[in-house]
Design goal:
9 helices; Rossmann fold; alpha/beta
Length: about 300
């Protein structure tokens, strides 16, 4: 992680997240703080009544430049800055492309109250459209991550997720909890199998559930043995809604960071968030690191 792009809206949550990144998550990386002035829409029927766009944008850009200088001088003396005009997610991703960023960092939202969801629209759009991994700095603690939860399956990003998780385990001297959640669909299929050709359906169901659970645990164990040194990684298997179970497990193991993939893959991945990731991003109580593309060679 040599170059990080940090979306900056000057909200308390975004500044706190940026400080955590600079001090704990990637202290040796080059940070570029990006603030985007988002002009209001100009309905055509009142266009002639409004001042030229530049007259509206220029004061906002000047104010943002002053606030950015003060912020860098006070908290990020080695950081670079960019002030752009446009749609925030588009401009943040454009700077990430120009700077060849290794990671894009966004706060969960501005200071507007969101009682039922952490994630704002800009953060979600950045996660949807980014090629580099995205770190969403939800409520970070003041220390490096010590416990990392990694929900995985057998899809195209699994190896990249494990590579990142292994990197974090070594960098932060952290423990990793590998989590696999078998869905309700599989669980219901197991239940239906237990009713075939047996008089003791309950016993058969328990046996089949144990076999599925043991197989998943063995698979996770093999992954942890090949991807992590020593006893850093442990395996956990559960069933239910993957997003809900991930959140429950994150709370149970007091995870400092969740590392997961953007989607199961396919052509729709850049356009839509997978339901599991969406659930986690909107309701997580700690930072989430989202791998968006396979690592070259992975």
């Amino acid at each position: 992680m040599e170059s990080l792009i940090v979306g900056m809206d000057f909200s308390d949550s975004t500044i706190t997240g940026a400080r955590w990144v600079a001090d704990q998550f990637a202290p040796g990386a080059e940070l570029t703080l990006v603030h985007v002035v988002d002009p209001p829409d100009r309905p055509s029927f009142i266009e002639r009544l409004l001042p030229p766009a530049g007259e509206i944008e220029s004061p906002a850009v000047a104010d943002a430049a002053t606030r950015m200088r003060d912020l860098i001088a006070g908290a990020f003396p080695s950081a670079r800055s960019e002030i752009r005009v446009g749609k925030p997610h588009e401009q943040i991703l454009e700077v990430a492309r120009e700077r060849h960023a290794d990671v894009v960092v966004v706060g969960p939202h501005g200071d507007r109250p969101r009682p039922h969801s952490w994630l704002g629209s800009t953060a979600e759009r950045v996660v949807r459209g980014s090629r580099p991994p995205v770190l969403v700095t939800i409520n970070p603690r003041i220390s490096r991550p010590r416990t990392i939860l990694v929900p995985i399956d057998e899809r195209r990003l699994t190896e990249s997720i494990l590579l990142w998780a292994g990197h974090f385990a070594e960098t932060f001297d952290a423990d990793v909890k590998l989590l696999h959640v078998w869905s309700e669909a599989i669980y219901n299929h197991v239940r239906s199998m237990s009713r075939v050709g047996t008089r003791d359906a309950a016993a058969a169901q328990r046996e089949i559930e144990k076999e599925v659970h043991d197989a998943a645990t063995h698979w996770l164990g093999d992954l942890s043995a090949t991807g992590f040194r020593g006893d850093r990684a442990t395996a956990m298997v559960s069933h239910g809604n993957p997003g809900d179970v991930t959140l429950e497990m994150a709370a149970a193991c007091d995870a400092d960071l969740i590392v997961m993939g953007r989607s199961g893959g396919g052509a729709i991945a850049p356009a839509l968030l997978g339901s599991t990731l969406r659930t986690v991003l909107h309701h997580a109580t700690g930072p989430v690191f989202v791998i968006t593309e396979p690592i070259t060679g992975a």
